[in-house]
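re: ur question from the group chat, yeah i did fold both. here u go
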Amino acid sequence: VLAHLPEERVASIVDEYGLPSASPTTIDDESTLRSELASIRERGHAFNEEEFGRGFHGVGVPLFDESEDALGAISVSGPKRNLQGEYFREELPNVLKQTANQIEFNYIYDVQS
């Protein structure tokens, strides 16, 4: 979700909460964060590679409303041994994007009816 917020909002969140490190791979400087957020926007999904805990990986995708505003996100996480390789990098993000598209469709349809 952070990748799809306005720059001013991202700066405000970083100012308020900082970038505390939860693991050796956590992004803890603003320049690297901004670069990673740009990459996330470009590919359409985010990876968590042990940023929140050793041995855990995850993939997340945003959920958008009809105005393309990020409403939230869905993600899957689990043991690194189960989430790696092509499954982790390609298949899982595609499944999550398909699921997100269905949720968005249902949300937009329900809101408009």
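okk and heres the other one u asked abt
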Amino acid sequence: MKETLARRLARAAWLALIAWQFTWLALLPEPLGKARLGFALVVTVPLLIPLRGIIALRPRSLIWGGYLALFAGMLGIMELWAAPAERPAAGLQLFLCVLYLVFLAVGTRRRRD
């Protein structure tokens, strides 16, 4: 897989992660979601910090997104463990985080000459 394609797929996964996290935490009703706007904003706004660079496919911003994706993944793992009714939503959250991290690893690796 070429670096530019992997970075584009990482960008798509990042945008999907932001959209899903906000939808899950702010809009989905109980028991599948939280339906709490304040909590959704507190958890989703940090994901917007590297958004400008991720849209531009800058490697440093993609890497910072990876650090933030780890925190979003921890939220997914915690909800998978603690809230049985939210397992499908939390599983999708975790899947998007892992997908982003895989594309990030492929898109930002250094080539040996």
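fwiw on the second one: The chain is about 75% helix and 0% strand. Residues 3-27 form the longest helix (25 residues). idk if thats what u expected
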